[in-house]
Amino acid sequence: MGRASGALLLVGTVTWVGCEGARGPAGQDGANGSPGEPGAEGPPGGAGPTGPGTMGQPGPGATARAQGVEAGTPLSSVIAVTFRGDLGTGATNVADYVKARVEQVVAGKLPSPLVFPLSSASTDTVRSVPGLFPTTVIKWMDPLAFAKGGPRFGANVDYLAFFGDGWSADGRAPQYQGQGASGWMWINHEYVSGAKPRAGTAPTGQHLDFARFLRNTGTLANTVSDGTSWQADALVTYNREWKKQVGGSWMRVVQDPATGGWAVDRNAANLRYDATSATLMKVVGVSLSAAEHDDSGAALEAGVVPGTHSNCSGGQTPWGTVIVGEENVQGAYGDPEGALWTPKNDWIAAAPGFAPGAPLVPDFSAPADGDFISTDRDSSHLKDGYGYLTEIDPGQPPELWYGKDPAKPGVGHRKLGVMGRAHWENASFVVDANWKLLADQPIVVYGGDDRRGGRIFKFVSQGKYTPGMTKAQVRVLLDVGTLFVAHFAGLDNATGDTLVGGVVPTDAAPGHGRWVQLGLDSTDLAPNGEAYGQPTLQVGAALRDANHNAVGGFVNDDQVRKLLWTAANKVGVMELNRPEDTEWNPKDPSGTPLLYVAFTEHGDPTALDQQGRVATAALEGGAWVKKARGALDTRAVDKVGSIFALREANPAAPAGSKTFDFFRVWKGESAATSPLPEYAAAKPDNLVIDRDGGVWFGTDGNFGVNKVADGVFYLDQAPAHRQSPYFRKAFRVLSMPSDAEATGPAFNADMTSLFVSVQHPGEDSYSVWP
Q1: 505 near 662, Cβ under 8 Å?
Q2: Is residue 641 part of a domain?
Q3: pLDDT digits (tens, 9 = 90+) for 432-441
Q4: Which residue intervals make up region (Disordered) (predicted)?
Q5: Residue 364 and residue 350: Cα distance in Å, rounded?
Q6: How far apart are CA 185 and CA 629, in angstroms?
Q7: Residue 325 CB: number of other CB atoms within 10 A?
Q8: What is the rounded CA–CA span in Å between residue 429 and residue 445?
Q9: Rounded Cα gap, residues 145 and 138, in angstroms
Q10: How far, in Å, CA of 312 to CA of 389, rounded?
Q11: Is the preceding peptide bond at 60 cis, omega within 30 degrees of 0?
Q12: Domain presence at residue 708
């Protein structure tokens, strides 16, 4: 997570460059004071942030004093790992080079003394396998423009999307199209770590670093490290500026043909979209509980809300927009479902608005203690205005909400209320081998609810896509459709990644699941109907029933969509182990398109038992009462995560599939117990499918499990390797600094570079990255 600093360049000699805003040219020796001690260099043969090589640590002199941060402050950043030569493999890009090395490992012909995959370690550098060279593209608070006072790059980076220049020619989809050496990037900014300042209490972590920046640039006048100086006026100012650090950035990047390094084109029309009312979104598909206002208190048009935030992963649409997942929004303005379930998924008896025996009357008003709320009451916004899959129309003005300008139909930013509120992590689309929507079929969107016990959802548009549709016509299709939730029948509630009896589902002997329509008119069978002696109970009737499964009765489909977690619990849908990413693979090595899902881990009790009943509620004498949790209603066993694949009953037309098979393709593991410890990794997070169907993933938490840095891995699934001990092993390609999470991996158009977000370096452990 970022704080601006100077940068260390390892190009023959060591040069320190101080910075204020954009990195300026080096001054005369000594003009800026004595240089800091040189940092530790990366492996020989490399160069620093503007050239090839592995990047080392800066010394304590690498400090951007004008930015208001201290020496050694770690920075969230975006890096590019670039292919610079085939080294005898014949490869022409990152993906082919890695796959060629995998072939050599499997055949036992890896040239000596070359090491592949990348050795396990935990350093404060970015390390990559030989042949690939990492460089820093941008870091937190770097300017996006040359002009003073212009937009700056935001905080903790996550999802990335690349649009090569000229990608849209001939009606192409943006994936792997256009120029490879220049293009536009979308980057999510999820959060600022540490504790925000409160009345009488100073901030910590990144919040303190950011407060120092605001103090040094004159935005704040108080002594930010002194808790007594934090009073109402300072808090209002801080909250306003903090909300500018999340959301997303839209920026043009270009590659240096001499070095392979990437840089931001600061003369381009780069933009920031954030959590303030300078960014506006239209919520479509549901009605909000009340009228909204902007941050000044001025009324907004019906359905329009200010800002987007808590953006984790996302998806690149085939028509050229970006979907971002508003994940952990509950800390900003509150979560209405928090009134019914404890953080450990225990049922709360007689929860206000949710108590059984009556219709649901959830409170969607903002709580008094939301983190984004200060004594400036106009900063308070609706709970049901956030927590959606949000479609950004990149390049359009941040304030241009969907439908605002009648002269520009189908243009602007919106939140997909039709898919509901959840801890959304991502979105993926069913596409063909050219990454385009399936002709003459409804649009199918998958998304994961990233929480312990979250589910996978599938949206099927009512209308069909036909070739030749305009962007506006395609976007209209997402306004209306049917929402389904995946029920993994037979999954063991004690593990979440095996079938009942401890059997691992495989592609040859998979588990079987079904898509359950969520809505008051759904005639699908409720998964927990049989457990309550009603094997023919329909989902719609179960949702309306004010006494079914210890939750009050839903009164309309808006409630169902705004309370997806509770609705899925009420009808007994099997809980999952934090589905952090879903990616449709139209070119899967198996020969059949598959939906891949990264399950990061669980580690907490489940809300439901094996039969789909609320685990901590019992019906006694006609009333629901609190009961002790059963011994098996927990998933504390899963600390390492897994990757699953879903195979639709009709992979060629998933919109009509009501059932699917599921199987495990990779299981996280501890290096201490692995027979091949160099291939051990844990807690998969973001996935990316390369142009040829290869599966790659980043990790979030491998540092905690294995004391080895998180990184990016290639999952070998070549059919010819099925009998090899390396089949479906994770080959480490890239290693992060310290305890930084590897997020948002994305290839450029020709796969000669892989972009990765370095999120929260130094959040819990020492780091001075970059």
Answers
A1: yes
A2: yes
A3: 999 999 999 9
A4: 22-69
A5: 18
A6: 47
A7: 30
A8: 5
A9: 12
A10: 10
A11: no
A12: yes
Residue 728 lies in a domain: yes
Note every long-range contact of 438-445, with CB atoms under 8 Å and residues 24 or more positions apart, other chains counting: 438/465, 438/653, 439/465, 439/466, 439/467, 440/464, 440/465, 440/466, 441/465, 441/653, 441/655, 442/477, 442/481, 442/655, 443/474, 443/477, 443/478, 443/481, 443/655, 444/654, 444/655, 445/389, 445/419, 445/478
Find the mean pLDDT for residues 384-410: 96
Number of independent structural domains in the chain: 1
Whole-Å CA distances, 704 to 453, 641, 682: 21, 13, 9
pLDDT at residue 735 is higher than 80: yes
Q: Residue 560 — φ and ψ, nearest 5°?
A: -60, -45
In the prediction, which pLDDT does 672 show?
A: 81
115: left (phi over 0), alpha (psi -120 to 50) or beta: beta
pLDDT tier for residue 68 given thresholds of 50, 70 and 90: very low
430 neighbors 654 (Cβ within 8 angstroms): yes
In this structure, what token pair is assigned to residue 728?
């479906």
Identity of the amino acid at 707: K
* DSSP letters spanning 569-623: HHHTPPP-B-EEEEEEETT-TTSS-EEEEEE----SB-SB-TTS-BTTEEEETTE
Decide: helix, strand or coil at residue 719.
helix
Task: Return the pLDDT at 6.
Answer: 34
CB 73 within 8 A of CB 3: yes
Q: Among candidates 748, 729, 713, 668, which has minimal Cα distance to 128? A: 713
* H or E, element range at 273: strand 271-273
Angle ∠(682,684,686) on CA atoms, nearest 5: 155
State the CB neighbour count (10 A cutoff) for residue 453: 24
State the CB neighbour count (10 A cutoff) for residue 439: 11
pLDDT of residue 534: 97
* Residues paired with 315 in a beta bridge: 323
The pair of three-digit structure tokens given for residue 707, joined into one six-digit string: 């004391």
Q: Considering only 254-258, 312-316, 655-659, 760-764, which range has the smallest mean pLDDT? A: 760-764
Per-residue pLDDT band for 671 (boundaries 50, 70, 90) equals confident
Q: What is the pLDDT of residues 146-156, one digit of tens each?
A: 998 899 999 99
Q: Tokens 């050229």 — which residue?
A: 320
Structure tokens at 369: 């203690």
- Structural domain including 601 reads 77-192+245-759
In a domain, 642, yes or no: yes
Amino acid 294 reads: D
Q: Beta strand 280-284 with 414-416: parallel, antiparallel or unpaired?
A: parallel
Amino acid 392 reads I
For the stretch 229-233, contacts whose Cβ atoms lie closer than 8 Å and that sit 24 or more positions apart, written own/partner, are: 229/202, 230/197, 230/198, 230/199, 230/200, 230/201, 230/202, 231/199, 232/199, 232/374, 232/375
**pLDDT per position as a tens digit, 328-347:** 988 888 888 988 999 899 99
Tell me the β-bridge partners of 80: 135, 755
> Cα angle vertex 710, ends 705, 712, to 5°?
130
Cross-strand pairs, 584: 595
Dump the DSSP string for 732-765.
EEEE-STT-EEEEEEE-TTSSEEEEEEE-TTSSS
The tokens of 496 are what?
A: 């979440």
Token pair for residue 727? Answer: 């089949």
Beta-strand relationship, 695-699 and 684-689:
antiparallel
- pLDDT score for 71: 55
